[in-house]
Specification:
This protein is α/β, with parallel strands linked by helices. The protein has four helices and six strands; from the N terminus they run αββαβαββαβ.
Protein backbone atom coordinates (compact mmCIF):
# COMPACT_ATOMS: atom_id res chain seq x y z
CA UNK A 1 0.00 0.00 0.00
CA UNK A 2 2.86 2.38 0.73
CA UNK A 3 4.20 1.85 -2.80
CA UNK A 4 0.81 2.83 -4.25
CA UNK A 5 0.59 5.95 -2.09
CA UNK A 6 4.11 6.93 -3.12
CA UNK A 7 3.36 6.29 -6.80
CA UNK A 8 0.38 8.67 -6.56
CA UNK A 9 2.53 11.29 -4.79
CA UNK A 10 5.22 11.04 -7.45
CA UNK A 11 2.80 11.62 -10.33
CA UNK A 12 2.58 15.34 -11.04
CA UNK A 13 -0.84 14.87 -12.67
CA UNK A 14 -2.52 13.27 -9.65
CA UNK A 15 -3.91 15.22 -6.69
CA UNK A 16 -2.74 12.47 -4.32
CA UNK A 17 -4.24 14.16 -1.26
CA UNK A 18 -7.74 13.56 -2.71
CA UNK A 19 -7.30 9.83 -3.29
CA UNK A 20 -7.45 6.94 -0.83
CA UNK A 21 -5.98 3.52 -1.53
CA UNK A 22 -7.03 0.15 -0.18
CA UNK A 23 -5.35 -3.15 -0.95
CA UNK A 24 -6.67 -6.65 -0.42
CA UNK A 25 -4.48 -9.56 -1.54
CA UNK A 26 -3.14 -7.69 -4.59
CA UNK A 27 -6.45 -6.09 -5.52
CA UNK A 28 -6.01 -2.34 -5.27
CA UNK A 29 -8.96 0.06 -5.03
CA UNK A 30 -8.72 3.81 -5.63
CA UNK A 31 -11.38 6.02 -4.04
CA UNK A 32 -11.80 9.79 -4.08
CA UNK A 33 -12.76 12.77 -6.18
CA UNK A 34 -10.79 14.72 -8.79
CA UNK A 35 -11.67 17.65 -11.02
CA UNK A 36 -10.71 16.12 -14.38
CA UNK A 37 -10.93 12.69 -15.97
CA UNK A 38 -7.25 12.73 -16.98
CA UNK A 39 -6.38 12.85 -13.23
CA UNK A 40 -8.55 9.78 -12.65
CA UNK A 41 -6.83 7.95 -15.51
CA UNK A 42 -3.31 9.01 -14.43
CA UNK A 43 -3.96 7.74 -10.88
CA UNK A 44 -4.80 4.29 -12.25
CA UNK A 45 -1.79 4.32 -14.56
CA UNK A 46 0.50 5.29 -11.67
CA UNK A 47 -0.35 2.16 -9.66
CA UNK A 48 -1.32 -0.54 -12.16
CA UNK A 49 2.19 -1.86 -12.80
CA UNK A 50 3.39 -1.93 -9.20
CA UNK A 51 4.82 -5.21 -7.98
CA UNK A 52 2.13 -7.39 -6.43
CA UNK A 53 -0.82 -5.55 -7.98
CA UNK A 54 -3.18 -8.07 -9.54
CA UNK A 55 -5.97 -5.67 -10.48
CA UNK A 56 -6.98 -2.03 -10.00
CA UNK A 57 -10.55 -0.93 -9.32
CA UNK A 58 -10.78 2.77 -10.09
CA UNK A 59 -13.67 4.21 -8.05
CA UNK A 60 -12.42 7.78 -8.34
CA UNK A 61 -15.25 10.16 -9.26
CA UNK A 62 -14.86 13.23 -11.44
CA UNK A 63 -16.46 16.21 -9.68
CA UNK A 64 -16.31 19.82 -10.76
CA UNK A 65 -17.92 22.97 -9.44
CA UNK A 66 -18.23 24.40 -12.95
CA UNK A 67 -21.83 25.11 -13.92
CA UNK A 68 -22.46 23.82 -17.42
CA UNK A 69 -24.80 25.20 -20.04
CA UNK A 70 -25.84 22.15 -22.10
CA UNK A 71 -25.83 23.93 -25.47
CA UNK A 72 -22.31 25.30 -24.82
CA UNK A 73 -21.02 21.85 -23.85
CA UNK A 74 -22.52 20.29 -26.96
CA UNK A 75 -21.06 23.04 -29.17
CA UNK A 76 -17.58 22.63 -27.63
CA UNK A 77 -17.62 18.87 -28.16
CA UNK A 78 -18.84 19.19 -31.75
CA UNK A 79 -16.12 21.79 -32.43
CA UNK A 80 -13.55 19.35 -31.05
CA UNK A 81 -14.97 16.63 -33.33
CA UNK A 82 -14.62 18.96 -36.33
CA UNK A 83 -10.99 19.79 -35.44
CA UNK A 84 -10.04 16.15 -35.09
CA UNK A 85 -9.44 14.54 -38.46
CA UNK A 86 -9.99 11.06 -36.97
CA UNK A 87 -13.62 11.78 -35.99
CA UNK A 88 -16.54 11.82 -38.42
CA UNK A 89 -18.73 14.28 -36.51
CA UNK A 90 -21.75 13.62 -38.71
CA UNK A 91 -22.01 10.05 -37.36
CA UNK A 92 -21.90 10.88 -33.64
CA UNK A 93 -24.74 12.30 -31.59
CA UNK A 94 -24.02 14.39 -28.50
CA UNK A 95 -26.54 14.83 -25.69
CA UNK A 96 -26.03 16.72 -22.44
CA UNK A 97 -27.88 16.21 -19.17
CA UNK A 98 -26.49 18.32 -16.34
CA UNK A 99 -22.78 17.50 -16.15
CA UNK A 100 -23.23 14.22 -18.05
CA UNK A 101 -22.48 13.85 -21.78
CA UNK A 102 -24.16 11.09 -23.77
CA UNK A 103 -22.44 9.95 -26.97
CA UNK A 104 -24.42 7.90 -29.47
CA UNK A 105 -24.10 6.75 -33.06
CA UNK A 106 -21.50 4.79 -34.98
CA UNK A 107 -17.75 5.12 -35.27
CA UNK A 108 -15.51 3.45 -37.82
CA UNK A 109 -12.88 2.00 -35.48
CA UNK A 110 -11.53 1.91 -31.93
CA UNK A 111 -9.31 4.95 -32.54
CA UNK A 112 -12.31 7.10 -33.49
CA UNK A 113 -14.20 5.69 -30.50
CA UNK A 114 -11.38 6.67 -28.11
CA UNK A 115 -10.98 10.13 -29.66
CA UNK A 116 -14.71 10.85 -29.37
CA UNK A 117 -14.71 9.94 -25.68
CA UNK A 118 -11.57 12.03 -25.07
CA UNK A 119 -13.20 15.01 -26.79
CA UNK A 120 -16.23 14.73 -24.50
CA UNK A 121 -14.05 14.45 -21.39
CA UNK A 122 -11.97 17.47 -22.49
CA UNK A 123 -14.76 19.95 -21.71
CA UNK A 124 -14.26 21.41 -18.22
CA UNK A 125 -17.12 20.56 -15.89
CA UNK A 126 -18.06 17.25 -17.52
CA UNK A 127 -18.36 14.70 -14.68
CA UNK A 128 -19.55 11.68 -16.64
CA UNK A 129 -19.54 10.40 -20.21
CA UNK A 130 -22.14 7.79 -21.10
CA UNK A 131 -20.98 5.81 -24.07
CA UNK A 132 -23.66 4.48 -26.41
CA UNK A 133 -21.31 4.42 -29.40
CA UNK A 134 -21.11 1.37 -31.63
CA UNK A 135 -18.08 0.39 -33.68
CA UNK A 136 -18.86 -0.56 -37.30
Amino acid sequence: MIAAINALKWSMFVPHDKIKVSVDDGYLTLIGEVEYNYQREKAETAVEDLSGVVSVVNNIKVKSDIVLIPSDVKDKILQEFERNARIDAARIGVGVSGSKVILSGNVRNFDEYREAKNAAWSVPGVNEVEDLLEID
